[in-house]
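Translate sequence into C-alpha coordinates.
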Amino acid sequence: MHIAETFATQIQGMIETGREFHHRGWSLGTSSNYSVVAGREPLRLILTGSGFDKGRLTPEQFVVVNDQGQRVTEVGARPSAESLLHVAVAKATGAGAVLHTHSVWATLLSEAYLPAGRLEIRDYEMLKGLAGVTTHEFILHVEIFSNTQDISALARQVDARLRDAVNPMRHAFLIAGHGLYTWGQDLIEARRQIEVLEFLFEVVARKKLIFPAGAP
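Result follows.
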Protein backbone atom coordinates (compact mmCIF):
# COMPACT_ATOMS: atom_id res chain seq x y z
CA MET A 1 0.00 0.00 0.00
CA HIS A 2 1.42 3.37 -1.03
CA ILE A 3 0.12 5.74 1.64
CA ALA A 4 0.48 8.95 -0.37
CA GLU A 5 -1.51 7.60 -3.33
CA THR A 6 -4.15 5.65 -1.41
CA PHE A 7 -5.07 8.46 0.99
CA ALA A 8 -4.10 11.51 -1.09
CA THR A 9 -7.16 13.63 -0.26
CA GLN A 10 -6.95 13.08 3.50
CA ILE A 11 -3.21 13.67 3.54
CA GLN A 12 -3.49 16.87 1.53
CA GLY A 13 -6.07 18.15 4.02
CA MET A 14 -3.68 17.56 6.91
CA ILE A 15 -0.78 19.15 5.01
CA GLU A 16 -2.88 22.28 4.55
CA THR A 17 -3.90 22.14 8.20
CA GLY A 18 -0.25 21.99 9.24
CA ARG A 19 0.66 25.00 7.12
CA GLU A 20 -2.17 27.10 8.53
CA PHE A 21 -1.60 26.06 12.15
CA HIS A 22 2.14 26.73 11.81
CA HIS A 23 1.40 30.17 10.39
CA ARG A 24 -0.90 30.94 13.32
CA GLY A 25 1.62 29.79 15.90
CA TRP A 26 -0.30 26.71 17.04
CA SER A 27 2.03 24.02 15.59
CA LEU A 28 5.58 25.30 15.61
CA GLY A 29 8.64 23.21 14.84
CA THR A 30 7.99 19.50 15.13
CA SER A 31 5.26 19.90 17.75
CA SER A 32 1.67 18.72 17.26
CA ASN A 33 0.14 15.75 15.49
CA TYR A 34 -2.95 15.22 13.36
CA SER A 35 -4.96 12.18 12.33
CA VAL A 36 -7.89 11.23 10.12
CA VAL A 37 -9.82 7.97 10.35
CA ALA A 38 -9.30 5.90 7.19
CA GLY A 39 -11.35 2.88 8.25
CA ARG A 40 -13.39 1.55 11.17
CA GLU A 41 -13.44 -2.24 10.75
CA PRO A 42 -10.62 -2.61 11.52
CA LEU A 43 -9.74 0.84 12.83
CA ARG A 44 -7.10 2.59 10.75
CA LEU A 45 -5.81 6.13 11.27
CA ILE A 46 -3.69 8.21 8.92
CA LEU A 47 -1.34 10.01 11.30
CA THR A 48 1.44 12.55 10.99
CA GLY A 49 4.78 10.85 11.48
CA SER A 50 7.04 11.66 14.39
CA GLY A 51 9.59 14.47 14.25
CA PHE A 52 8.41 16.42 11.21
CA ASP A 53 7.91 20.18 10.83
CA LYS A 54 4.14 20.63 10.60
CA GLY A 55 4.48 23.75 8.47
CA ARG A 56 6.31 21.79 5.75
CA LEU A 57 4.70 18.37 5.72
CA THR A 58 5.00 16.11 2.66
CA PRO A 59 2.93 13.02 1.77
CA GLU A 60 5.77 10.69 2.72
CA GLN A 61 5.69 11.98 6.32
CA PHE A 62 2.41 10.26 7.17
CA VAL A 63 1.79 6.79 8.52
CA VAL A 64 -1.20 4.45 8.84
CA VAL A 65 -1.68 2.96 12.33
CA ASN A 66 -4.01 0.35 13.81
CA ASP A 67 -6.08 0.35 16.98
CA GLN A 68 -2.91 -0.17 19.01
CA GLY A 69 -1.22 2.88 17.50
CA GLN A 70 1.19 0.65 15.57
CA ARG A 71 2.27 1.15 11.96
CA VAL A 72 0.51 -1.29 9.63
CA THR A 73 2.99 -0.97 6.75
CA GLU A 74 6.49 -2.45 6.65
CA VAL A 75 8.05 0.87 5.71
CA GLY A 76 7.15 4.49 6.25
CA ALA A 77 7.29 7.24 8.83
CA ARG A 78 7.53 6.40 12.52
CA PRO A 79 4.22 6.93 14.39
CA SER A 80 4.04 9.67 16.99
CA ALA A 81 4.48 8.52 20.57
CA GLU A 82 1.02 9.98 21.16
CA SER A 83 -0.74 7.84 18.55
CA LEU A 84 -2.59 5.98 21.33
CA LEU A 85 -4.32 9.23 22.34
CA HIS A 86 -5.63 9.61 18.79
CA VAL A 87 -6.80 6.00 18.85
CA ALA A 88 -8.54 6.47 22.21
CA VAL A 89 -10.44 9.54 21.00
CA ALA A 90 -11.39 7.99 17.65
CA LYS A 91 -12.70 4.81 19.31
CA ALA A 92 -14.57 6.44 22.19
CA THR A 93 -16.18 9.34 20.31
CA GLY A 94 -16.51 8.04 16.75
CA ALA A 95 -14.59 11.13 15.60
CA GLY A 96 -13.34 11.22 12.03
CA ALA A 97 -10.37 13.48 12.82
CA VAL A 98 -8.25 14.31 15.87
CA LEU A 99 -6.00 17.37 16.10
CA HIS A 100 -3.33 18.24 18.66
CA THR A 101 -1.73 21.70 18.88
CA HIS A 102 0.94 23.35 21.04
CA SER A 103 -0.01 27.02 21.25
CA VAL A 104 1.45 29.45 23.77
CA TRP A 105 -1.92 30.13 25.43
CA ALA A 106 -2.91 26.47 25.71
CA THR A 107 0.48 25.65 27.20
CA LEU A 108 0.33 28.42 29.81
CA LEU A 109 -3.32 27.89 30.78
CA SER A 110 -2.87 24.14 31.08
CA GLU A 111 -0.12 24.71 33.65
CA ALA A 112 -1.97 27.47 35.51
CA TYR A 113 -5.20 25.48 35.89
CA LEU A 114 -3.73 22.01 36.43
CA PRO A 115 -4.32 22.18 40.22
CA ALA A 116 -8.04 22.71 39.52
CA GLY A 117 -8.07 19.88 37.00
CA ARG A 118 -9.94 21.88 34.41
CA LEU A 119 -10.34 25.22 32.70
CA GLU A 120 -13.85 26.68 32.77
CA ILE A 121 -15.01 29.02 30.00
CA ARG A 122 -18.49 30.52 29.84
CA ASP A 123 -20.65 33.24 28.28
CA TYR A 124 -18.70 33.85 25.09
CA GLU A 125 -20.45 33.96 21.72
CA MET A 126 -17.57 31.99 20.19
CA LEU A 127 -18.63 28.93 22.21
CA LYS A 128 -21.37 28.40 19.63
CA GLY A 129 -18.67 27.34 17.18
CA LEU A 130 -18.22 24.09 19.12
CA ALA A 131 -20.12 21.02 17.96
CA GLY A 132 -23.58 20.83 19.51
CA VAL A 133 -23.42 24.17 21.33
CA THR A 134 -26.28 26.55 20.49
CA THR A 135 -26.01 29.32 23.10
CA HIS A 136 -23.34 31.59 24.51
CA GLU A 137 -24.59 30.65 27.98
CA PHE A 138 -22.92 27.25 27.62
CA ILE A 139 -20.26 26.39 30.22
CA LEU A 140 -17.25 24.64 28.71
CA HIS A 141 -15.09 22.50 30.98
CA VAL A 142 -11.75 21.63 29.41
CA GLU A 143 -10.17 18.91 31.51
CA ILE A 144 -6.43 19.00 32.15
CA PHE A 145 -4.25 15.92 32.49
CA SER A 146 -0.75 15.87 33.94
CA ASN A 147 1.99 15.45 31.37
CA THR A 148 3.63 12.05 31.31
CA GLN A 149 5.84 9.86 29.16
CA ASP A 150 3.53 6.92 29.92
CA ILE A 151 1.20 7.50 26.99
CA SER A 152 -0.52 4.13 27.46
CA ALA A 153 -1.62 5.13 30.95
CA LEU A 154 -2.71 8.58 29.77
CA ALA A 155 -4.70 7.05 26.91
CA ARG A 156 -6.54 4.86 29.41
CA GLN A 157 -7.37 7.93 31.51
CA VAL A 158 -8.65 9.79 28.47
CA ASP A 159 -10.68 6.80 27.31
CA ALA A 160 -12.31 6.45 30.73
CA ARG A 161 -13.32 10.10 30.82
CA LEU A 162 -14.69 10.02 27.28
CA ARG A 163 -16.81 6.97 28.11
CA ASP A 164 -18.01 8.16 31.52
CA ALA A 165 -21.69 7.23 31.71
CA VAL A 166 -22.66 10.19 33.91
CA ASN A 167 -20.43 13.07 32.84
CA PRO A 168 -18.36 12.24 29.76
CA MET A 169 -15.60 14.58 28.64
CA ARG A 170 -16.66 16.62 25.61
CA HIS A 171 -15.02 18.72 22.91
CA ALA A 172 -11.41 18.80 24.09
CA PHE A 173 -8.79 18.24 26.74
CA LEU A 174 -5.44 19.76 27.69
CA ILE A 175 -2.18 18.17 28.78
CA ALA A 176 -0.33 20.37 31.26
CA GLY A 177 2.59 22.28 29.75
CA HIS A 178 1.93 20.45 26.51
CA GLY A 179 -1.13 21.50 24.57
CA LEU A 180 -4.63 20.91 23.26
CA TYR A 181 -6.44 17.87 21.86
CA THR A 182 -9.77 18.22 20.09
CA TRP A 183 -11.73 16.27 17.49
CA GLY A 184 -14.62 16.39 15.04
CA GLN A 185 -16.73 14.27 12.74
CA ASP A 186 -14.27 15.19 9.99
CA LEU A 187 -11.17 17.31 9.49
CA ILE A 188 -13.21 20.43 8.74
CA GLU A 189 -15.08 20.24 12.04
CA ALA A 190 -11.93 19.43 14.00
CA ARG A 191 -10.15 22.44 12.48
CA ARG A 192 -13.08 24.67 13.43
CA GLN A 193 -12.90 23.42 17.00
CA ILE A 194 -9.18 24.24 17.14
CA GLU A 195 -9.89 27.78 15.93
CA VAL A 196 -12.69 28.30 18.46
CA LEU A 197 -10.75 26.87 21.38
CA GLU A 198 -7.51 28.69 20.60
CA PHE A 199 -9.46 31.96 20.36
CA LEU A 200 -11.11 31.30 23.73
CA PHE A 201 -7.82 30.35 25.38
CA GLU A 202 -6.25 33.61 24.25
CA VAL A 203 -9.25 35.61 25.47
CA VAL A 204 -9.13 33.96 28.90
CA ALA A 205 -5.39 34.49 29.26
CA ARG A 206 -5.41 38.11 28.07
CA LYS A 207 -8.39 38.90 30.28
CA LYS A 208 -6.34 37.79 33.29
CA LEU A 209 -3.62 40.23 32.23
CA ILE A 210 -6.00 43.14 31.65
CA PHE A 211 -8.18 42.52 34.72
CA PRO A 212 -5.87 40.77 37.23
CA ALA A 213 -8.33 41.43 40.05
CA GLY A 214 -11.33 40.28 38.01
CA ALA A 215 -13.44 42.00 35.36
CA PRO A 216 -15.30 45.12 36.50
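Note: The longest strand covers residues 33-40.
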